[in-house]
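Quick start: what a row looks like.
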Amino acid sequence: MEAGPRDTEQDAPDAQHDEGRLSPDGPDELAVTPEVEVELRPARRMRMWQLAPIIMLAALGSLMFAFPLAFEVGDGGPVVAMLGLLISCCAAGWGMMAARRVGHTWPGLPSRGSAERADWRVIALYVAVCAVLVALAVWRVARLRG
């Protein structure tokens, strides 16, 4: 005696099996679909609570840096401008760290965790651009003092 339900068509000697139906020893080979690997975790993105303080600090620092330099506001102008530059740089660093945490990288640099090494020319370009921007900012603030 069998414990499970019977397939009476299978027991019949002249039964025809259609494609996609079960054969006596399991599923047909043609009906098997290939396995597809799917990522179950959602893509990591920067959330609004991460972006809002970075954007607010960057805007505040930019305004503190730009207004004293543009309108030459007395003796305290250079100090306020340098403080604004410092706040802007802090916001930029905070933004870069948050972006790196969710998996973003700078153009030309390898992704996090890869075995690739960064090209020295790309790093030299980034250092040169930062050095020029800092030199221009310091030069402008020094001109306010003089």
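That is the whole record. Residues 19 and 93 are 61 Å apart (CA to CA). The chain has four helices and no strands.
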